[in-house]
Amino acid sequence: xxxxxxPQPEKPADVDxxxxxxxxxxxxxxxxxxxxxxxxxxTDATSEPADVTVAAEPVVDPDLAAFEEAERSFPxxxxxxxxxxxxxxxxxxxxxxALFATPVAPAAEESAMADAAYAPAYSDAExxxxxxxxxxxxxxxxxxxxxxxxxxxEPPRDRGNRGTAGAIGLLATVVFAVLYLATTLGLGALAGxxxxxxxxxxALAPLTTWGFWTPVVVFFLxxxxxGAIINRSRWGLWVVFGLLVGAVAYGGHILGQVFEAxxxxxxxxxxxxxxxxxxxxPLAIAAFVFARELTIWFGAWVARSGxxxxxxxxxxxxxxxxxxxxxxxxxx
Length: 332
Prior knowledge:
By secondary structure, the chain is mainly alpha-helical. The protein contains 12 helices and no strands. The radius of gyration is 71 Å and the shape is rod-shaped. Mean pLDDT is 75; it is low at 36-56 and 90-101.
């Protein structure tokens, strides 16, 4: 079974052929206007010469005529059929206008054919207004505050009282040395060894001996160690433990007498006999008493300083806690 024959559309002629056909149509129209019979009879009947105004041929745009001829030959090529049918031919006219027309400057002819020839293919389509798509607002991105790093306050450090105890211990040691030296001179005066004439030399003589400096140094070490242990405690501890400082000074006196006798050359029996002699020596007892009393009274000074520092530490701790409760604040 063969395929049915489909009619093929006629191919439009070449533009040169269309233009040639249009020019031929114009020539035919001009010849038809020249052979009008009414005009010839009137010319013969008129015997007298008269001023006759010859009708001027209408000026026709060749391009426009070519487009019109092409549209007549191939309807729908440049304009819609309705527009082509409605447009009258450019050369149509009455007899009067052909013969007795007043010469007037030809106006530029406007034709729908020219507009259709140069109009785009979509010009005849009905314009449709399409509603625009609704503008969807972008979702608001939540803005997070940038973190601000603030250095946390450091907890306060407790103020100690050991340094103060050492400084006050130095003053107590000076007083102990003066009292110990005065006791030595007094005992010498009672024995008749120290008089008004040799009191100066007698006062300087002990300053170069082990028996004088040993109890003085031992007293300072005992006082400072007790202050380091007690630190910021109350004065009552100084009163109680002042006995230990007195015992240390008492032992320092005996040790100083052994050093003074020559510990390297002294035999054990001689050292034991010397220690026995100094156990109840007046200067040893004086060293014990001086050390204990100075520890009590200078210890009160140390205890007062410790109480003051305890208050300062408590205030600093409260301020630190208030700062933590208030939270971080931005610097201004």
